[in-house]
Amino acid sequence: CEAQAFFLFFGVFTMFAYNGMLCTYYACAIAFQMKENTIRKYVEPFLHLSALAFGLANSVLPLVRKTFNAGPNVAWCTIRISQCR
Is residue 69 classed as helix, strand or coil in its secondary structure? Predict the structure, then answer.
């Protein structure tokens, strides 16, 4: 259950972060008219690290705190504080 919830949360939060990363990339390329080499060298590494860090932080923290539990009416695991373990 914990592995399923970890990968679900990591995937979902990383997907949202990469969506924001694409918006930032296009803002740099179109609005700020930065060259592709400049974006690749200075902006892209920061964007990849921040997207992966956001996904890991939002999936590791509940794993460490042991808040991934089965939901009462769903077929997947989610964050749910349960008194019974």
Answer: strand
